[in-house]
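Quick one:
INPUT:
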């Protein structure tokens, strides 16, 4: 599995974003719209790094983050 992921990230030029302390701390600044900790961490990463969330999850649209899909 790891070999497949490494190949896929290389082939499609995908960068892996590590979880930093600033991302974790940023979670407390998000509105408590829902309580999924992983989703909240992804949202915090996007806000901290000025990235766009790619997700069909409609709950993401209620957060102050740009979203595609």
């Amino acid at each position: 599995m790891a070999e497949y992921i490494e190949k896929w990230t290389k082939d499609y030029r995908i960068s892996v974003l590590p979880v930093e302390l600033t991302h974790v701390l940023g979670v407390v600044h998000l509105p408590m719209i829902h309580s999924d900790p992983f989703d909240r961490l992804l949202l915090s990463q996007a806000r901290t790094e000025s990235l766009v969330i790619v997700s069909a999850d409609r709950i993401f649209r209620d957060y102050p983050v740009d979203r595609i899909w």
